[in-house]
Amino acid sequence: MKRVVAISLAAASLACAGSPVAARDGWNAAGAILGAAGGFALGSALAAPRPIYGPPPAVYVDEGPICYVRVRRYVDDFGDLVVRRVRVCE
Q1: pLDDT at 83
Q2: Is the predicted pLDDT of residue 67 greater than 80, yes or no?
Q3: For residues 71 and 84, what is the distance between their CA atoms, to the nearest angstrom?
Q4: Which one, 27, 39, 52, 70, has least CB within 10 Å?
Q5: pLDDT of residue 5
Q6: How far apart are CA 44 and CA 10, in angstroms?
Q7: Measured torsion, CA atoms of residues 51, 36, 18, 16, in degrees rounded to the nearest 10
Q8: Rounded to 5, what percent of the chain is helix, strand, coil?
Q9: What pairs with residue 12 in β-bridges?
Q10: Do residues 70 and 84 touch, judged by C-beta distance below 8 A?
Q11: Residue 55 pLDDT more than 80?
């Protein structure tokens, strides 16, 4: 959208710049100065960065119980050593 506005304004300014105008009591220079000032104001308004909003709200996470892995070793009914990892939460 900004490009369309900028291109149309540039085309309009180039179309108007080519037409000769008689200088009447210095009004031609004043018009050029006002046109340039208006162009700078419009250009800076179009090129301005988007507003930056505040940070997002804080997210609170309930960590829940503290868990860890404990190794349990035991000998089963067949005489084999069995090692199992068991999750233990407090």
Answers
A1: 96
A2: yes
A3: 6
A4: 52
A5: 65
A6: 14
A7: 60
A8: 40, 20, 40
A9: none
A10: no
A11: yes
Determine phi and psi for 62, rounding to 5 degrees.
-80, 115
Structure tokens at 70: 């404990």
Question: Distance between CA 28 and CA 23 in Å, rounded?
Answer: 5
Q: What is the DSSP string of 9-45?
A: HHHHHHHHHTS-----TTHHHHHHHHHHHHHHHHHHH
Which has more confidence, 57 or 80? 80
Structural domain boundaries of the chain? 2-47
Tokens of residue 1, six digits: 């959208």
Q: Per this entry, what is the length of the chain?
A: 90
- The dihedrals phi and psi of 65, each to the nearest 5 degrees, come to -70, 155
Instruction: Judge contact between 82 and 75, C-beta under 8 A.
Output: yes
Q: What CA–CA distance (Å, rounded) separates 56 from 36? A: 41
Query: How many whole angstroms separate alpha carbon 4 and alpha carbon 27?
Result: 31
